[in-house]
Structures are given as structure tokens and as C-alpha cells.
Amino acid sequence: MIGPFLAALAGDAEIEALFGDDAAIAAMLDFEWALAEATAEAGLIAPEAAAAIAAATVGFTADRAGLAAGMRRDGVVGPAFVAQFRAAVALPHRAAVHFGATSQDLVDTAQALALGRLCAVLDGRLAAILAALAALKAAQGTLPLMAHTRMQAALPFTVGDKLDTWTRPLERLRARLDEERGRVATVQLGGPVGTRTAYGAGAAAISAGLARRLGLADAEPWHGARERLAGFGGCLALVAGALGKIGADVALLAQSEVGAIRLAGGGTSSAMAHKANPVAAEVLVALARHAAGLAGTLMQAMVHENERSGAAWTLEWLTLPALAVTTGAALAHAERLVPAVTFVGGAD
Amino acid sequence: MIGPFLAALAGDAEIEALFGDDAAIAAMLDFEWALAEATAEAGLIAPEAAAAIAAATVGFTADRAGLAAGMRRDGVVGPAFVAQFRAAVALPHRAAVHFGATSQDLVDTAQALALGRLCAVLDGRLAAILAALAALKAAQGTLPLMAHTRMQAALPFTVGDKLDTWTRPLERLRARLDEERGRVATVQLGGPVGTRTAYGAGAAAISAGLARRLGLADAEPWHGARERLAGFGGCLALVAGALGKIGADVALLAQSEVGAIRLAGGGTSSAMAHKANPVAAEVLVALARHAAGLAGTLMQAMVHENERSGAAWTLEWLTLPALAVTTGAALAHAERLVPAVTFVGGAD
Amino acid sequence: MIGPFLAALAGDAEIEALFGDDAAIAAMLDFEWALAEATAEAGLIAPEAAAAIAAATVGFTADRAGLAAGMRRDGVVGPAFVAQFRAAVALPHRAAVHFGATSQDLVDTAQALALGRLCAVLDGRLAAILAALAALKAAQGTLPLMAHTRMQAALPFTVGDKLDTWTRPLERLRARLDEERGRVATVQLGGPVGTRTAYGAGAAAISAGLARRLGLADAEPWHGARERLAGFGGCLALVAGALGKIGADVALLAQSEVGAIRLAGGGTSSAMAHKANPVAAEVLVALARHAAGLAGTLMQAMVHENERSGAAWTLEWLTLPALAVTTGAALAHAERLVPAVTFVGGAD
Amino acid sequence: MIGPFLAALAGDAEIEALFGDDAAIAAMLDFEWALAEATAEAGLIAPEAAAAIAAATVGFTADRAGLAAGMRRDGVVGPAFVAQFRAAVALPHRAAVHFGATSQDLVDTAQALALGRLCAVLDGRLAAILAALAALKAAQGTLPLMAHTRMQAALPFTVGDKLDTWTRPLERLRARLDEERGRVATVQLGGPVGTRTAYGAGAAAISAGLARRLGLADAEPWHGARERLAGFGGCLALVAGALGKIGADVALLAQSEVGAIRLAGGGTSSAMAHKANPVAAEVLVALARHAAGLAGTLMQAMVHENERSGAAWTLEWLTLPALAVTTGAALAHAERLVPAVTFVGGAD
Fold first, then answer.
1. C-alpha dihedral over A288, A293, A297, A298, to 10 degrees?
2. Is D303 helix (H, G, I), strand (E, B) or coil?
């Protein structure tokens, strides 16, 4: 989140942490541990090696400057991480570390863990917003309200009718997000060129074992097949978009001349003390538009050349975590905005 | 498709027809007929009125210049169409035409019919491409091929391994498209402000009856809740993106210096007669990028203000049919490209 | 413009014609004529050949189905056009046709001619809008009007103050468009790989002669250097965006509850006869958003691989003419909208 | 820059600092100082007040948590900053602080200062890249090289010809960036609704005085007229795009099978020790695509409703600084990449 104090308005510390360095290091350690267990189970590395690898994950301290330097040199943090972690394992077992895997297995799986956690956070926020909408409907649902079409007063309906138009898409999107979760919280295990060659006949079992240990769904290698990630990003933008629609409606209904909504805690103005600005509502609109743009750019990354494209992969990194934060921030704003809304009614 | 002869390269006559004037007029007539039947069934209009309306749909000839003028004046073709159609119904039954509905019900439902048909066409094309990929794998799957990662030769795998990376996303997307179809091939029936007020207690039955007659799924009104349309557009872009990846791979493998693919029927050059250009492969890349952009713009339309936004709705019209044509054209190119591919192998 | 009757709302026949088949054929004939003259002047082809080529352009009738087939096969209409045109030239002079040039020279230059004409049309429309704004200011400029910030009434200013905020960006953009015109209404002449090899020492003179005859600026070959086209597209989106801002303002000020603007000729509603919808204002918003999306996608085409990228070039064709039409349609709507505006005032 | 270690690959500390909190606070202090001087010069505040304000800027320590809280509450950091700064001024002179200005004047002008500095940094990097390209041409320009069109070997040209296609767009963009600088390194001074009301007849002089003291161009208020910012963002994307084209070319020419470029310092692979990956080249492609997407989204912010739109303004903040960093990072990568390139030639 670049720009002065912008993080305070449009950031989301909880979600940024899911995609941060600490979380990534922890997830990569989990991957190496789970892979060692699974390859040992398949008889490809010794049980002692798996034990040594598991032991090394405890108390492992990454050289972060070294990881950053590796990222800059290699275009992916995997090689530097594997080298550091291997050095932390007792000498005879080092060859067993990361056995048969490639950097992309490590980094994509670590991201899958983050996306699974992201879904849980987003689901909780959606649930809170839906509860607030239900409470608002219970409190004010029968109040008459003027409906507006094409920027003109149309005919009266009720606050409940209005709230339904906000609620239904969020309910549907909550279910959709859960489906998308199943598509992206999946293991990545393909080896250098996606063929799991080093695992021989044990490949499927190792992938399943890795997935089970990490709480992810099993999946065939998807190094260059990124439509599930792009589709997930699209779903995030849908959530932000549905909230942007609420923001637009709130800002319109709270206009001085309309006065159909009163907002608690509006923003202040340096020059006009009488104003109470619908800040959160406007921010929801901005976040929705930013998310739509990021989703479109993420979809550009589907043109993923050959078995692994550094260009397409980097483009995903530039957009998907940003989309997660943008959508998360929108949910957080909506969580605060809905309870601040009081309808004034006045359609008669 | 603007631009000289561009339609020949990037257009899709079959899909353009689904979103054309003829299809729209037919679909709007179907809507008015089915609505009349359903409202008559609910006892809200007389059976004679429904019969008169049904009769009027037969042989109805639209004044197309009038519809275009109405589109320009009203921002939506609905009012002009309803006026024309009403005039074609016997005088005593005119009030029963379009009973309780609004232009958006008519136009959104007509589009839903087009989207349902679109899905059938796309599914057929996906099936054909998958069959061609399977045939190619059967013919050449065991041939060795050099895999490439980060734009460098990596390790050998096989043509079958390569084809799997093209096939799996398309299989998944075929299933996803079917799910998305269920989300958008739905009836729209809300009346002026989305509350179905004119239908009273019969509202749900009328909506169900309308849906049944039109072969659409029933749905609550969604005048301002457009996330399903935006999500559908996203899915189209995923399909185009997965094909764009195939196009990028083919163009890379067919490079003069790589020579791992030989293409039948490559394009000619006005200045270099020795060249055989991978035209379809390049076009797939272009269509994927265009689709990604259109999907991102369509998502901007989710910020749909109030009960009906002319701005957001128009933005959907500018992007969703174009996305359908773009994705359809990509499928058509891929249908021709895959059978033109012969792998040369050469990873040893 | 796909979608039922959408052309009536968002199309622009005058600008579509600039990018249509007829215009392209005429421009390509102009190119071949001017190139023949310039190469003859440089002594590279015989004067008789140039005369024969000039003669052949008169009454040349393209086989359009053949051009479309060539477009489909070659990914560019150039080779088919050159073959057809060459066949129309007297046998001994055929080798002199298209001498030293490549398809891209022909097609890019033809597009440059279209862009030059486009700028003239857009400039005229901008001038008309600016005149209408000036007239509105003269008529109503001193009327008090409530200013709005962050969707709240702020403090009163005047209609003239408001109109200044619409006028100034359009004035600046008119000047900017003229600058951009100089960047894209340029000749393209590079030969097969952009080195003008066939022209030897006469290359610069031939390029200058070609440019002079076509009324274009001279330029070094820019086969793969597309930043001027992308920048031009960006400028078109700026124009559409500035008009979208006017549309948004008009729609907001014309709201029933605000009533600061009265619009002549608003759209009708099929269900609510009392409404007068701000159709043109909403369409301006939609066109601005579509243009922004297209401009972003066009910028993706700057990643133009090697000396000529079919993928990037096709992406330009998919977006730049569409941007021209979108911006043109916005100007046409604004030309009608501004004179339809009457401010009611009422800030006191 | 969210995402594990992504900053090391795609961040730009120097440019991030230009848009960071420290720079913003310093710039806002400069604004308040310069505004005080200019309003004192015009006789609107007392010279003692201006002196007190100038004194208060020295050693002023912002309460950053308070600024962040203000940002969250008000949607803009201005009100909280002005309140904090006012409290740091001797009591009798507090009313003179920020005289006649609004938050947007403060924040837009602070951003204009950042953009001016940004241009200087970008210009320096462009100069360095151009020098490296010139050195490469001097060293290897006459080497033969195979040109490629439509992903096929075409005809031989030279390394110098190739380098010209990289160099010319960057030279033009360097000049264009300088023009754009003049459009955005401008003062913003409009007061609450853009009319400079508090300044009366002294308005133009105060604006000029403010601009002069800050080293910015003078300008009429542009609160809602944002086309110059959007155009600037477009120019940044053009720079990133031109570099993305170089990245794509380098990656293609450095392919194992092509071998026309040898890269010093390529990235390593965790699984394939023999590979030297063209990391910087791939990152250039990713940054170009991200920049194109951000530019398109920034253009959405031109639909800026009324006299100040919180939604549109926030969208600018979400995209413009990110664009600056993206373009800056691309320039930094290109600065390292060009000297690492050695052409191998081999077109014969």
C-alpha cells in the first residue's frame, strides 16, 4: 500500500499478514516438512531424513536479507529458501530436503495455504455484514423508501426491499467464495517440469499425502494452468463489486438533498465544518473499481508461456495479493458502514 | 467488430447472431408471450388476452428504425418494443401486454436467453477441441519433447505431458461454464422497482411460470445485483485465457529455431515468401488479452447505483456480448489450430 | 458494435466508416500509388511503372471475399491486397508494385491516414461542445448553484464556475489531441524487418516522399515501437473520461431531489410514465468507463515481441478502432446533451 | 508491495519514499509555509502570522497515529494534518494557517511535488538506460542478427538495427515525460469548492506565489478535472510498456534454442542447476502488464463526480503511486539488464 497514510484507509493488516514474509516462511517450512513426511511414507527418503527435516523446521530462522537477494536474483524466493533450509538440516539428510520438488511447488503451495486462510477471514467478514444487514432489516425493514432508477426517483418501496438487493448478492458470493476456495486451496506438486518424475509410481500417493498434511485439496500439477487462480481473483472482485454497489447506494441516499440515510461517524472537512462525508461509502466504490482493474490484469497472467513463465507468475504476485487486500479492506469498511446506516425513510 | 476485415480474423458470426437484432426481437416476443401465459395462469389477465398476445407474436414485424430511435431516446430498447408490440395486439387486450413488468425484465430476460444459447455453442466447441487434443495425444503422446521453464529449455518430457497441460484447464472450464450457465440463464421479473408489486400473491408463481416457459432458471429479481453476469464474463475470459496459453505455447514451439511444432496452413507474408506464420496461435494470444480487458471492464459495471443504473447497464452491453464473441472466436480458432499441429519432438 | 440496437446508442457511423473496409481499401491504394511515385522519384522503379500503378488505382475493385480470406489466412489483409492489386497492374510493371515494402508498412500507414481523419472529426466535435458550453455560460453563468463535494452539498458557487470545470479539461484535451495527431498520423515504411534495405541510399527520401504525398508526417520505421499508438489511445480515453465526468455531474444534478438541472428530451420508461431519464448523461459515463478499459488493454499491446508481433498487432486492432468509436460516440452524445441542459440554480 | 519478498523483485525504495509518509508530511509543511507567505504577500494574513507559520514548520513533529486515524475518519489526511499543524502554531496566528484553502489543495499539491521529483528520478534512469544502449551499439552494433517477425526467423539485420528499435521509443518517451511533468507538477489552489473565494482579487497572485515558492507550475484549480493526472499515469505505462517490449525481446533472443543473447547473472533454479533464467527480462514484461492495468484503472477515476469525489480521488491514490513504483522498478531492472546483455549474433 504505497502513498501517504493510504494504508489507514485502504489497507488491511490482517490480510497483508497472510501474504507477508512471516507467513510465507512458515508455510514454506510446512511444505518442506509435509513433503518429507510424504516422501518418506512412500519410501523415497529415509524416515530418519524426514525426522531430521521435521526437526530442522523447529526454530529455523531465515536469513531474510538472503531471501530477498535470492528473490531478486532468481525471480522467485524458492531457491534461496531451499538452500537456507537445507543448510539447517543435518548433513547426511540434506539431499532428502525438497526431494523431487521444484521452487514452484513450494511457492505455489505456500500461496495456496494463504488463500485458504484468506477465505476463512473473508467468510467471517461476509457473515458479519450479512448479520448487520439482517439486523438493519429487522429494525427498519418496513419503513417506506423511495426507489430510484436511472438516477431518478421512481416509486416507493421499503427499506427491506432495498436491503434485499444488497443482501442477496452477498449471500450468493459467500457460497461462491466457498466453491472457489476448493479450487485454489490445493497442493502444487509437479517437480521441475510438472511430471513428478522423481516420484515414480508413488507420485499420486505423495501428492495426496502432502495435501492431507497441509489441509489442502489434492490436485494434479498446475504449473502453467492458472485459470483457477485467475477465477479466484475474479471472485474477489465480485465481492468488492457487490460492496461497491452498496457504497454507491449509501452515498446517493445520504446526499444532502435526498437525506434517505443518516450516517453515524461521517468524515470531517478541513474547510466546511458543517459537512459529514460518507467516507466509507466512497472508499467502497474506489476499492470495487480497483479490484475490477486488478482482476482484469490478473487474467492477463493466464497467457502463461510453456511449463513455467516468470513473466506470468510475477504478474500474479503483483495482482492477486493486492486483490485480496483490496477485497478484505472493502469487507472491513462494509462491516463498519452497515451498522452506521440509519434510514430516514420518506418515500411518501 | 470495427476495423478493416477484422471480423474475418476475430469475429464470430454464429455468436454475433445470438446477440443480434433478430435474436433480440424473437426473444422479446418470447418473453411477452410467456409472461402473458403466466399472468393469465395466475388470473391476472384474461385467457383471451393471453391468446391475443400469443397470436400477435406470430408474424409480428418490428419497425427496426423505430426500435433504434427508441434505443437512442430511452437508453434501452424496451419501451419502443413494448409500444410497437402492444399496437400489434387487438385493442381490448393491449393493457394486458407486458403486465406488471418493466423494460429491464424484458431486456435482461432476452439476454439470459442469448446467454443460455451461447453456453450451448461454447460447450460444443470446447468438446470439439478436447476431442482434437485427445486425438493428438493418441497419435503423438509418447513422442519426447523438450519442456521449457522461464523461457529456457528445461528437461525432456513427452508430447502427452504437454497436451495434458492444455487439456486439463479446458476440461475444468467446460464444467465451470456449465455452472455459470445456471447462474445467468435465469429469468428477470421484478417490475418497475424490483418488487413485483403488480403480481401480488401470484408473483412467485408468475416468475416460475415465465421461467418454465422460456427454459430458464427461476430467480429473484436482480435488477441491480449483477455479480452473476460479471462472474459469467469472468468465466468467458478464463476460457479465452486458457486458449491464449495454448496459442503462446504453439507460437513458441513453432519458432524457426525451436521447430518442435510444424503447423499446417500457416499465414503468408507479402515480403518473405519463405515464412509460414503461426497466425491462429498469435490471434489466440490477442483474443485472450482482449477478453481479460473486457472482463475487467465488465466488473466495473457491478457498481450499479440504485435500483437501475443506465450507466452500469450500458457498460454491460458494451462488454458482455463483445466478450462472448471474443471467446467464441478464440474457440473457433483453437478448433482449427489443434488439428493443424504436428509435434516434431526432438528433446533428446 | 455487437448487441441488439446497441449501435443506435453507442455507435458512431461516421467514425466507423473511417475504420471500415472502404476506407481501408482507398487508403491502401493511396499508399501503393504514393510509394510508386516516391520510389520512381528515387529512381528505383521506372516512371512508366509508377504511371501504370497510378492508373491501376483508378477503378480498382477489390475482391472483398478474397481480402477477408487473406485476412483469415495471413492474419493481416496486406498480402491478399497486394496480390489483388498487383494483378490489376499491367504485367511488365507488377514487380514495381509495393516495391521494398512489407504488409505492415501498408496497413500501419493506412491506419495512420484513418487516425489523421479521426482527429479532424474529433476536433470538430470538441469545438462544437466548447461552443455550446460557452453559450450556456453566457446564458446562465451568473446563476447561483450549490457545489457538491464528497457527495454532499458544500457551498454555493455559480453555474459559470461549474461550467469552467467542464470546459477547461476539454480545452486542454483539444490541444493535446492535436499534439497526439502529430505522433500517429505518420508514415510507416520499413520493409520486411524495418531496415528499408531495398531502398539503399534513397530510403530517407522515399519515406519523406511517401509522407508528403499522403499528407502524413515522416517517421523512422516503428514496426515494433508502438508507444505512440498506445499513447494516442490513452488520449482518446482522456477525452471520453472528461465527458464521462460531465455525464456524471449532469445525472447527479438532474436527480429528482436535487433538481438543479432540467433536461430537454429525457428518455421514457416502459413502466413509469412520469420519469424523464438522463439517458445521454448515463451513456457518457458508460462510454468513459469502456474507453478507460480499452485504453488499458491497448497498452498491453506495447509488449510487442521482436520485429513484428501478430499477437500485439491484432490486439491493437481489437482496441484502437473501438476506442475511436467509443470516444466519438461520447463526443456526439455530449454535443446533444450540453444544449439540452438548463440549470435551475437554487443554491440560496 | 504485498506478497512475500515481492518488494525485492518489483519494489522501488527510492520511489516509494517519494510517496511515503515522510515525504508527504514534508510536502504538506512546504505547502502551508508557502501558502502563508503568499497570502501574507497579498495582504490577507499578517506578516507575523506568516513568520509564525514558517517557524512552526521547523521541528514540527507529526502525530502519525493521529494522521492515520484522521485518514480513516475523513478519507483524506488533510484535516488531521491541518489540525495538528495549526496546534503547533502560536495561538494568535492559528486562524492564518491554511487560509482559504481546502484539504484537496494541500494533498493534491503535495502529490504534485512528489510527481515532480518522480520525473527527475525517472529521467535520470532513462538517461542511464539510453547510455547503456548506446554503449552496446558502439560495442556490437555491426554484428549480424536474425530479425524475427510473427514469431519466425525473418531476414538478417544487425544488432544496431535491433538496438534502434529499443532506443527510439525511450528517447521519445523521455521527451514526453518531460512534457507530462509540466502538466502535473502544478499547484492546486481552489478553496472549498474550487473558486478561491477567500482570496478575492488576490487569488491569481496567491496561486502564482504559491507555485513559485514550491517550484511548481501555476494552474487554475483542478479539483475535479483530473485528465492531466490520468494522462501522466498513461505516460508511465508507456515507459513501462517500452521496457516490457525490451524484456520480451531479450527473453526470446536468450532462449536456449535461439542463443542470440547471452545474459550475465541469470537466475538460478532450485531443481535445474544448468539453467540461467532471464529473470529481469521476465520481470520487465510483468511490470509492463501491471502498469497497463493500473493505467486503465486510473483512467476510471476521471469520472469524478461533482466538485470533489472521494471515490475517484481514492482510486487515484490506489493506482497512481503504484504506477510510479511499477514504472520505476521497470527502469531499475532495465538499467541492470541492458549492461548484462551480450549479443552472440549468428544470423548468417
1. 0
2. coil
Distance CA B141, CA B150 (A): 23
CA distance C2 to B19: 7
Give the relative orientation of helices B227-253 and B279-300 as an angle to the nearest 10 degrees. Answer: 160
In sign, the C-alpha dihedral spanning C284, C285, C288, C290 is negative
What sign does the dihedral C302-C305-C307-C311 (CA atoms) show?
A: negative
User: pLDDT at residue C241 above 80?
Assistant: yes
Return d(Cα D6, Cα A71) in angstroms, integer: 8
* Angle made by CA atoms A230, A234, A235, in degrees to the nearest 5: 120
A308 a catalytic residue = yes
The alpha carbon of A330 is separated from its chain's Cα centroid by a whole number of angstroms, namely: 12
Which one of B18, B29, B63, B72 makes the best mutation probe of the C interface by having the most chain C beta carbons within 10 Å? B72
pLDDT in tens, B256-282: 999 999 999 767 666 666 677 999 999
A99: which chain D residues are within 8 Å (Cβ-Cβ)? none
How deeply is D92 buried, as exposed, middle or buried, from its count of CB atoms within 10 A (0-12, 13-18, 19+)?
A: exposed
- Give A250-262 pLDDT, tens digit per residue: 999 999 999 999 9
Contact C277 A152 (CB under 8 A): yes
Which residues of B lie closer than 8 Å to D, measured between beta carbons? Answer: 148-155, 251-252, 254-259, 267, 269, 272, 275-279, 281-282, 293, 296, 300
Instruction: Residue count of chain D, please give it.
Output: 348
pLDDT tens-place string over residues C121-153:
999 999 999 999 999 999 999 999 999 999 999
Which amino acid is residue A8, in one-letter code? A
Q: How many CB atoms lie within 10 A of CB B92?
A: 11
Distance CA B35, CA B15 (A): 26
Q: How many residues are given for chain A? A: 348
Helix A159-184 to helix A103-140 angle (10° resolution) is 160
Q: Cβ separation of A4 and D10 shorter than 8 Å? A: no
Q: What is the structure's pLDDT at B2? A: 75
CB contact (8 A) between residue D149 and residue B269: yes
CB C105 within 8 A of CB C191: yes
Question: D1, D5, D188: best mutation site toward chain A, by most A Cβ within 10 Å?
Answer: D5
**Angle value at C-alpha B8, between B6 and B10, nearest 5 degrees:** 65
Q: Judge contact between B287 and B243, C-beta under 8 A.
A: yes
The Cα–Cα gap between B83 and B78 comes to 8
Positions of chain B with pLDDT lower than 50, given as ranges: 348
Kindly list the residues from chain C whose CB atom is less than 8 angstroms away from the CB atom of residue A151: 251-252, 254-255, 277-278, 281-282
The shortest C-alpha distance from C229 to chain A (Å) reads 20
Quick one: chain A helix, strand, coil %, rounded to 5? 65, 5, 25
**Which of B30, C36, D271 shows the shortest CA–CA distance to A105?**
D271
**CA torsion, points C278, C282, C287, C288, in degrees to nearest 10?**
120
Q: Which residues pair with A146 in a beta bridge?
A: A156
Q: Which residues of C touch A (CB under 8 A)?
A: 148-155, 251-252, 254-258, 267, 269, 272, 275-279, 281-282, 293, 296, 300
Q: Active site includes A309?
A: no
Q: What is the DSSP code string of C181-250?
A: HHHHSB-----TTSS-GGGGGGHHHHHHHHHHHHT-B-----SS--HHHHHHHHHHHHHHHHHHHHHHHH
Of D317, B284, D267, the C-alpha closest to A71 is: D267
Q: How far is Cα A294 from Cα C275, in angstroms, rounded to an integer?
A: 37
Cα(A255)–Cα(D200) distance, integer angstroms: 30
